[in-house]
Design goal:
Elements (H helix, E strand, L loop, with lengths): L6 H15 L2 H19 L22 E10 L4 E6 L12 E12 L15 H8 L1 E3 L20 H13 L14 E3 H4 L14 E7 L2 H5 L7 E8 L7 H5 L5 H6 L11 E11 L12 H15 L6 H12 L4 E3 L2 E3 L4 E4 L5 H11 L4 E4 L1 H4 L9 E3 L4 E3 L10 E5 H5 L3 H12 L2 E6 L2 E6 L3 E6 L14 E4 L16 H13 L10 H16 L14 H15 L7 H18 L1
Parallel strand pairs: 6-8, 11-18, 11-19, 12-15, 15-18
Antiparallel strand pairs: 1-3, 1-7, 2-3, 3-6, 4-5, 7-8, 9-10, 13-14, 16-17
Helix pairs in contact: 1-2, 3-4, 9-10, 10-17, 17-18
Length: about 575
């Protein structure tokens, strides 16, 4: 459904509500909820210009656009938005101007995502242009805005011209002396943690969120996946020649934020009027029996595809993908299920490709080619000279699925091991700032693939939930589910939206759960790993499996049936391991 909403209409609504409420903040809050209501009525099938990929932008002047992406960084300094009292989005004169506190967000395409964005077919020349190394460029002083685009979509030739021009730019220091250029990949120049899956996704957007009551109530955080709705800045960008006329003093270089000399076609700027987190609520209501009907079909799909006939492993893959971090208690994440799969032979690239096809948010593979790179950045680190948070491979959107090649991880550096322990077992991302380390709560799913016995594994990868894969010979049975990867992905998207609660009306259930786990531990002595680290303890993981089981059926709390089902699976898993 096409969404019709122009900048003039929104500006008029802001002006009218400001006069009615005598408070521009209250007016902006009203518009925020008004736009969300209109978006909700238009879903599914919402049609509006998307900021990503940049080639999808046609004539966007005055049209409401959507920027779906991951918040890579929040500008640390206070900013102000110059608004006109008579025309909110128009040029504000000194006597008719309001300064509104605002936050700048650096938003990038969701790493490892292949389905959020409508990407055109790329030619080989476009792909080569996208992946070529480009020189690092100097800092510039000034707030640049996005260039006016033509009425037609950005053609491949235009994209190649921008990239070619970008590669030919020369770095100048403030005294004008030319310096040797260090080669950087384009994705690194755009501060993307991983190369995008398409050359057309080499892009980013600086989103301006004006402060008002709705912003204060619903905090936007780094790594969140968000749909931003707003209008793109249409002022013509300053050319490199004009920018060179501005002297670069020490303060100017430090104070610029993501104002590097990036081609305007790759870096957009948006004034946001509304937003919503992706997968926080279902896009559309589902039938009461949706989960009960779809779950067995998804289970059969997993068994007949990636698991190659292994029904037990299919159950654990389903539970693994149904789990998510619910909360952190005493610095311990609750709800996620890191899963280890062991086999004589296993192909991490094939598994990662499959997981990408069914994961709602994204999928990233940490293998030897990535972890052995000389340019590897592990976690985000503040670059105080450029005043930006340089990303790392472990900065991923909340909800992302991560596939680990255990052999590659075991050969990696101690720094990688320490950071991986933090993100996998503590579910926090270390942000390295000068003189301090900040740990940001995250929500990632980890699948570790190994050809070693668990007793031979490094301690980091001795996960409490480890399944020995027993694939059958090439499948004789056909997949009779009639499900596609998109159907499975849609199921896990709905599961992710299921609320998870800890307390049910039946208080005796917690006691029954504890008793059953103790009895099970006594009957299966090899089941309990006795890990003193709570997150990787067998009892904690059993509880997480039960919560995931309940969510996979669309239930908010654990039932007795969930407890019995998980203990049945755990008994089979332990028997296979022996």
């Amino acid at each position: 459904m096409e969404f019709l909403c122009c900048q003039a209409e929104i500006g008029k609504l802001i002006r009218e509500k400001t006069e009615e409420l005598n408070d521009i903040g209250a007016a902006l809050s009203f518009v925020h909820h008004h736009v969300l209501s209109m978006v909700h009525k238009s879903e599914p099938g919402l049609s509006m210009p998307d900021v990503f990929p940049s080639c999808a932008l046609q004539s966007t002047s005055g049209k409401l656009c959507r920027c779906r992406g991951m918040i890579q960084e929040v500008e640390p300094n206070i900013s102000f938005y110059r608004a006109s009292r008579s025309d909110f989005f128009g040029a504000a004169e000194e006597e008719n101007m309001a300064l509104l506190e605002a936050t700048l967000l650096y938003v990038i395409p969701v790493p490892g995502n292949s389905h959020f964005y409508r990407v055109p077919q790329e030619t080989m020349s476009e792909e080569r242009a996208a992946m070529n190394n480009v020189p690092a460029v100097g800092q510039v002083f000034g707030d640049r805005k996005r260039r006016e685009r033509s009425d037609g979509p950005l053609q491949s030739s235009a994209l190649e011209r921008e990239m070619k021009q970008f590669r030919q730019e020369v770095v100048f220091q403030s005294d004008g002396a030319s310096q040797p250029m260090r080669q950087l990949s384009l994705y690194q120049k755009l501060n993307l943690p991983h190369p995008p899956l398409s050359g057309f996704l080499h892009t980013a957007c600086v989103v301006t969120v004006i402060q008002h009551p709705a912003v204060e109530r619903d905090r936007l955080r780094i790594n969140d996946v968000v749909d931003f709705f707003g209008f793109l800045d249409e002022d013509s960008a300053m050319t490199g020649d004009r920018m060179a006329a501005f002297p670069l003093d020490e303060f100017g270089t430090f104070a610029s934020w993501h104002a590097e000399q990036i081609p305007p076609s790759l870096l957009s700027r948006m004034t946001c009027i509304s937003w919503k987190e992706v997968f926080s609520t279902p896009i559309r209501p589902v039938l009461k029996n949706y989960f009960e009907t779809k779950r067995p079909l998804v289970l059969l799909y997993l068994a007949n595809t990636i698991c190659q006939g292994d029904a037990l492993l299919a159950e654990y893959i389903l539970l693994h993908l149904s789990a998510r971090v619910i909360t952190h208690e005493s610095a311990t994440p609750v709800g996620d299920i890191p899963l280890r799969v062991e086999a004589q032979a296993i192909d991490p690239e094939m598994w990662s490709s499959f997981m990408r096809s069914i994961s709602p948010v994204g999928e990233v593979l940490l293998d030897a080619s990535l972890l052995s790179s000389v340019d590897l950045r592990i976690v985000p680190r503040q670059d105080h000279m450029a005043n930006v948070l340089r990303t790392g491979v472990l900065q991923l959107a909340n909800g992302t699925h991560v596939t680990l090649d255990c052999q590659a991880v075991s050969k990696a550096s101690n720094a990688l091991h320490e950071a991986l322990f933090a993100v996998m077992h503590k579910q926090v991302l270390p942000l390295e700032y000068p003189y301090q380390l900040h740990e940001l709560p995250i929500d990632l799913s980890f699948l570790a693939l190994s050809t070693a016995r668990i007793s031979e594994e490094m301690e980091l990868l001795r996960l409490a939930v480890s399944v020995r894969w027993q694939p059958e010979l090439p499948m004789a049975a056909m997949d009779l589910t009639n499900l596609s990867a998109e159907d499975v992905q849609d199921y896990f998207s709905h599961v992710r939206c299921v609320c998870r609660r800890f307390v049910s009306e039946d208080n005796s259930q917690a006691h029954r759960l504890a008793e059953k786990l103790v009895c099970f531990s006594q009957s299966e002595p090899s089941w309990n790993n006795h890990d003193p680290f709570i997150h990787n303890n067998s009892f904690s993981m059993a509880a997480a499996l039960m919560r995931a089981c309940a969510a996979s059926f669309g239930r908010e709390t654990i039932s007795d049936g969930d407890i019995d089902h998980i203990l049945f699976l755990e008994r089979d898993r332990v028997a296979r391991r022996c």
